[in-house]
Amino acid sequence: MMEEGKMPLGERVRGLLGRRVSVLVVLMALVVVAVELPVEGWLMELLRQFRLWGAGTGLVLAVVAMGLRMRWWWVVTALVLAGWQGWPLLEWRRSPGMKEEKAAESAAKETGGRLTVVTCNLLYEMREPGRMIELLGAADADVIVLLEFTPGWDREMGRELWGRYPYRVAEAMEGPFGICLASRVPLSGAKVEHDPGGFPCVAAVVEVRGMRVGLLGVHPMPPMRPDGYAMWREGFASWPGMLARLGVSERVVVGDFNATPFCRTFRGFVAGQGLRETSRGYGLESTWFPGRLPWGLPLDHVLVSKGLRVRGYEVGPEAGSDHRWVRVELGVD
């Protein structure tokens, strides 16, 4: 066997890179197994947030392994890990029952009431206010929930948009945690509530075709550090009480949750409140980061109770923010 020092430079480089790739594949396998365990805590939830990044990483490792002509099991292992991490992309497109629900909605499109909701993280730095306001106007929503809502955004909206949305409840703040709920239909019980960390939420009730629908707009602290994770969890824990105080059975919870659907905290809230994700059946898309999955993250959500039917779901274009808005059309009987 040829000694390593006497190998051609290309062979030595290939061997060195191969060892690095094999270590990364093993580490990725350990992470994938760890996050499936019933273990709570900041690090586990953070790793679950980036599940789809793992899918992209697995594909890159598989391609590199093939290029380095590594043993076949390294390539297969990387592909299996990528597939396991990326399967939600297929699940969201083919969610059970959604095809039948869409067919029923198509047949009944012109009947019943309609409530269109948009949630939009504006970005407090206000990079392209004119374009953002133009796109929000074109979205033609009945209700919009605006995150990172600042006094500057309030002034800009007042020039061009507030005439169409006369019913509002808001807490404008400098920085990333101001919030606003604006509606072109009357609101009742509209108020700003605060979670235990002091982050504002907006709550109100609208009436559509005689049905009262509760709305809750949220934007908790990002769970990127242990202290932020604790406040993020406190936010999720406080929202059921806010929903209960609205006193209605049909509910819509919208906003930038700083959570992907793979977090157990997020999934527990959705299941515990009898809600569902309106994106299911329409495909999982990135709403944060100027790119597409797997490198972006689906952080912005519209969750609805089971008595509301999903007629349409779309993610908007980029408009100067690091987020894209989500627009959902709901059927209300």
Summary, kept brief:
With 333 residues, the chain is α+β, with helices and mostly antiparallel strands. It is 41% helix and 23% strand.
Mean pLDDT: 91
Distance between the termini: 77 Å
Shape: elongated
Q: Count of DSSP helices? A: 10
Structure, described:
This protein is α+β, with helices and mostly antiparallel strands. The chain folds into two domains: 83 residues, no CATH class; 239 residues, Endonuclease/exonuclease/phosphatase (Deoxyribonuclease I, Chain A, 4-Layer Sandwich), CATH 3.60.10.10. The chain has ten helices and twelve strands. The strands form two sheets. The protein has a six-stranded mixed β-sheet with strand order 3-4-2-1-12-11. The radius of gyration is 23 Å and the shape is elongated. The model has no long low-confidence stretch (mean pLDDT 91).
Show the helix and strand layout.
Layout: H1 9-36, H2 42-49, H3 51-67, H4 72-86, H5 88-93, H6 98-107, E1 113-121, H7 129-139, E2 143-147, H8 151-160, E3 167-171, E4 179-183, E5 188-194, E6 200-208, E7 211-218, H9 226-246, E8 250-256, H10 264-272, E9 275-277, E10 300-305, E11 309-315, E12 326-332
Parallel strand pairs: 1-2, 7-8
Antiparallel strand pairs: 1-12, 2-4, 3-4, 5-6, 6-7, 8-10, 9-10, 11-12
Helix pairs in contact: 1-3, 1-4, 3-4
Key structural traits:
333 residues, alpha+beta, Deoxyribonuclease I, Chain A, 2 domains, 6-stranded mixed β-sheet, 10 helices, 41% helix, 23% strand
